[in-house]
Design brief:
five-stranded parallel β-sheet, D-amino Acid Aminotransferase, Chain A, domain 1, nine-stranded antiparallel β-sheet, binds glycine, 14 helices, Dna Ligase, domain 1, binds adenosine monophosphate, Rossmann fold, 4 domains
Length: about 425
């Protein structure tokens, strides 16, 4: 079977790396891909927002299965259009992708199906939103409803900050995403995520992970797309996993089914483990980046068999086997990220970094005349397994030390929470 993968990040490199190991994969194409993905796949310059172009390509190349990595094409209905054209694809419909595309949609689903989450209210004008602040204690969370690349969440410590956040949303700071605002209670606890593979009726727990969202050591500085991750997350004990599945994931699938929009694909639950147990912060409808990198390093089973079962509704017939050892990934980013940064800087030493078993997944890279160049904010994901998170961390940082990139940086404490628990 020929497979087309959509995306260009570290998540897609990890998926490409895993997909080409599948006996079902005869050839992999990736649109648009990056310099690392080019080692596993033929990269093609297809515009994923042009659904007709993607469909024509699939017909021309006789593609048997399309895997969509990022959220934007899912929310835009790429999977709906592919399926209507008779092409099998992995990922939710546009309607089901609202679980990520609209925070208000998800909060209403939680309210209707009794799924634990922060108390909230939705607003379409600034005055009523500000009035509602009278009923909330501080800190309070202000969120733009739509997709805002992780930037549409304001944790306001003061009433002034909350009002400024509300104004920013309605004045267009987050574009279309801010036309509606959700105000919610601030949850206290430890964050973790859980990934479930869903076929519309049945969910298979894939794994848990913890990300490092802030740019600086000690979880300081601005938010990023994620500076490193490990899996599993020690805070997700078997009891917390079971409760998350039964109190959050299963009712979500049932709720989506009863709305006539069964959820197929990856359900990524962003959780706060509070005193009461797991509560949903948000859903994403795709693998996390960089969480996918650690999950793929731990997965023993064939990813295509699992993804096809999810898209065909035969989840009950498959199982996933895992390496027990934890995996950890360190994101190397261009200096200046998540602000502005220089592009086209030279990177060397990736082969040396992989010499002892670590794997370097690429995100924003390209190759010119045989030289690897950084072209994005997040650039490399140096990933390793170990007997413990401490061992995986040592192996990954040892690989990082082989990489020669003057314009790059990484956090030096990826894994700290888990390592604190281990010692
Ligand atoms: P989100 O984009 O919804 O994942 O939010 C980004 C980050 O904001 C989350 O990873 C949390 O760290 C934080 N956050 C969002 N909502 C809440 C909440 N209700 N209580 C506490 N922290 C939150
Ligand atoms: N690492 C966070 C995300 O993928 O949304």
């Amino acid at each position: 079977m020929k497979v087309l993968l959509i995306g260009s990040g570290g998540r897609e490199h990890a998926l490409a790396w895993k997909i080409v190991q599948s006996p079902l994969c005869e050839k992999l194409y990736c649109a648009p891909g990056n310099a690392g993905i080019a080692k596993s796949a033929e990269c093609v310059s297809l515009d994923a927002s042009d659904h007709n172009a993607v469909i024509s390509f699939c017909r021309y190349k006789n593609i048997g299965f399309v895997v969509v990595g990022p959220e934007a094409p899912l929310v835009a209905g790429l999977v709906d259009d592919l399926e209507e054209a008779g092409i099998d694809a992995f990922g939710p419909s546009a309607y089901a992708a609202q679980l990520e595309g609209s925070k208000g949609f998800t909060k209403d689903l939680c309210a209707e199906f009794n799924i634990p989450t922060a108390a909230y209210k939705r607003f379409t004008d600034a005055d009523s939103a500000k009035d509602f602040l009278n009923e909330m204690s501080l800190p309070v969370v202000v969120k733009a409803d739509g997709l805002a690349a992780g930037k549409g969440v304001i944790i306001a410590e003061s009433r002034e900050d909350a009002e400024a956040g509300i104004d920013a949303c309605f004045e267009g700071s987050f574009g279309e995403a801010g036309h509606e605002v959700v105000i919610e209670e601030f949850l206290v606890g430890e964050e973790a995520s859980l990934f479930a593979l869903c076929d519309g009726q049945t969910a298979l727990m894939l794994g848990t992970a913890q990300d490092h969202k802030r740019v600086g050591d000690g979880d300081t500085g601005p938010n990023t797309g994620g500076m490193g991750a490990y899996s599993p997350a020690p805070v997700m004990t078997q009891e917390m996993i079971d409760r998350t599945m039964s109190e959050i994931i299963v009712p979500t699938l049932a709720g989506m089914h009863s709305r006539g929009a069964p959820f197929r694909g990856i359900l990524y639950a962003g959780l706060m483990i509070t005193e009461k147990g797991p509560e949903l912060i948000e859903y994403n409808v795709r693998f996390g980046d960089p969480e996918c990198q650690v999950l793929m390093l731990r997965l023993k089973s064939d990813i295509l068999t699992l993804m096809q079962a999810a898209s065909r509704g035969s989840m009950l017939e498959v199982e996933a086997a895992w390496h027990e050892d934890p995996a950890l990934t360190i994101v190397m980013a261009s200096k200046g990220y998540p602000g502005s940064y220089e592009k086209g800087t030279e990177i060397n030493g990736v082969t040396e970094a992989e010499a002892n078993g670590a794997i370097v997944f690429h995100a924003g890279t390209s190759e010119k005349d045989g030289q690897l160049l950084a072209t994005g904010g997040r650039v490399l994901n140096v990933t390793a397994r170990g007997k413990t998170v401490s061992d995986a961390q040592k192996a990954a940082y040892s690989a990082v030390s082989q990489i020669n990139w003057d314009n790059g940086f990484c956090r030096t404490d990826i894994g700290w929470r888990a390592i604190e628990r281990e010692s």
